[in-house]
Amino acid sequence: MSTSKTKDKYQIAVVPGDGIGKEVMQAAISVLNELDIEFDYVYGDAGDECLEKTGTALPKETLEIIKNADACLFGAAGETAADVIVKIRQEMKMFANLRPVKSYPNTNALFENIDFMIVRENTEGLYIADQEKMTDDGAIAKRIITREAEERIIDYAFNYAKENNKGKVTAVHKANVLKKSDGLFKEIFYEVAERYPEIDTEDYYVDATAMYLITQPQTFEVIVTTNLFGDILSDEGAGLVGGLGLIPSANIGENAALFESVHGSAPDIAGQGIANPIAMMLSAIMMLRYIGENEAADKFDAAILKVLEEAKTLTKDLGGSASTMEVTEAIKNNL
User: Fold this and answer.
1) Distance, CA of 108 to CA of 258 (rounded, Å)
2) 131 secondary structure, DSSP code
3) In a 10 Å sphere around its CB, with 0-12 CB exposed, 13-18 middle and 19+ buried, how is residue 180 labelled?
4) 135-190: per-residue pLDDT in tens?
């Protein structure tokens, strides 16, 4: 996932978006500013409030800012999420969605020692709006699976496993029912696996995987799957480790990357200063690894871990009473 290089200065597109996106973004950037790295932040507008102000949820200017940046940090979008984040993924050809699922202490995780990555194909499957239409009887959606896209995401998953010392990749599909589309996915998976003989392989049906994530999540290391299945399993993974407030994500393309917390804009608590900033911070850590700043990423991650281990400064969703910025200051103090 890393660009395996560092620069003197990085241009980072920052799109706070709506609701608590603004609050958690401010928190994450305040910690980034404590690191020994020079960032040039270029801010862009997008989301519900942007739509009200400008008539568009994703202005062309914001897209240009993202295109010209080394990476993008994205906060949250409300009702316009599909018009914002999905469009950015499509415009920037961000074919891989990465969702790490990791258990941290004092976070209501169902199990200890959970640590796996879901690699989700981001460009096809059922999530293509113009392939859905109304009919006389109701509606119909077309599911698209192409050899090019699936080979690309599967190879990405194996390469991720290789680069991160993971010993196994699990393919998730429903080839017993979707014999042609998921049958092709499974076929490609084992073709690509031949290029990585040092990595173990297995494949499960998606319904069985949903059960195994509850009964034996520690056995997974890297999961690769199609768009819809990856979306659903990612949120199940969040439930395993304490909720969406602890789950970061990355959208990766050949020449672009966007990092976002996945908890949404949470309008019910927006403006109260109580949002958990850790998911956004973990997303920023993924960004640091992408740009090759692994030492800084390790330092940031260790500071978060220490705060969680001490359990003295936690937000309400983790059983504490600390504010967003109190958690942020505790993390900064541990750097």
Assistant:
1) 28
2) G
3) exposed
4) 999 999 999 999 999 999 999 999 999 999 999 999 999 999 999 999 999 999 99
Sorted by where each starts, the structural domains of the chain and their CATH numbers stand as: 1-94+245-335 (3.40.718.10), 110-240 (3.40.718.10)
275 with 243: CB under 8 angstroms? no
Query: Is the pTM for the entire model greater than 0.90?
Result: yes
Copy the structure tokens of residue 201.
């392989």
Per-residue pLDDT, 129: 62
Q: Is the pLDDT of residue 31 over 80?
A: yes
Beta strands in 103-238 (DSSP E): 115-121, 132-134, 139-141, 168-173, 200-205, 222-225
> Which residues, including other chains, have CB under 8 Å from residue 252's CB and lie 6 or more apart?
1, 94, 95, 96, 97, 98, 156, 290
Residue type, 9: K
**How far apart, in whole angstroms, are the C-alpha atoms of residue 132 and residue 116?**
33
Comparing CA positions, the residue from 23, 60, 84, 38 lying closest to residue 274 is: 23
The pLDDT of residue 234? 95
d(CA 132, CA 128): 7
The average pLDDT across 258-272 equals 93
Output the six-digit token pair for 36: 């020994």
